[in-house]
Amino acid sequence: MTHSHDDPRYAVHKTDEEWRQELDPMQYQVARHAATERAFTGKYWDHFKDGRYNCVGCGTPLFESGTKFDAGCGWPSYWEPVNSEVVERVRDVAHGMVRVEVRCSKCGSHLGHVFPDGPEPTGERFCINSAAIDFEAGKS
Length: 140
Fold this sequence. Notes:
This protein is α+β, with helices and mostly antiparallel strands.
């Protein structure tokens, strides 16, 4: 799945060349082409400092460190985003399964997927690629 740079649903518009220049190759493949980094390889899967995680594509704050938990899956996992407006949920039927893809609602970058097996209070697990987020210390 490739996101068009002129998709009217998103406030942030960049050409494919701009995305390629701003992101490293892994960030580009994950954020713009819905690739998935290998489990236990991303820089944030076992990262538990205080702060917040922002979209690599546009800087929008997405997740607070206080909602991060160790799901044992090898990717950063959160039980909720900073608010319901920052992420877009998209039905994903690729790879022979039905999942809910999570994208940044401002720039359309692919973040990961959300599953109904997380802890309380939400019962959700936002399974996010490290390559799709940047950590900002102490903002939590």
